[in-house]
Amino acid sequence: MLAVDGVVFLLAATLNAGAQIPLGVLTLRYGVDTLRFDHPVWQAGVGEAVIGVLLLLAALTKSRRVAWIAFVLSVLGIAIGLSSNRVVGAARDIHVVLVPLAVVLLVLLVWTRRWRR
Q: 37 - beta bridge partners?
């Protein structure tokens, strides 16, 4: 779950950097497509990249400490993104997808903490 969450954060960071990601007949990018980031926010992209890397690092190293740090940062990033009026279109959709991922990740982090005791 850490890796999945990390990949979604890195996808958002990539889109905030202006990348184009082909998905068959659709393309995720800034512009006039259905799936677009209307207002690029490079600062958010940097934060999303850091969170994505931390989530992947936690998945690879199985470090609970890194996982918790990445989780807290991800929740803060999601909250900031959803509260911003600049986050619209596909950017908002990605934040909406991140919410249930964060809930599942929280349940798993708490469960593994209790299981280890």
A: 89
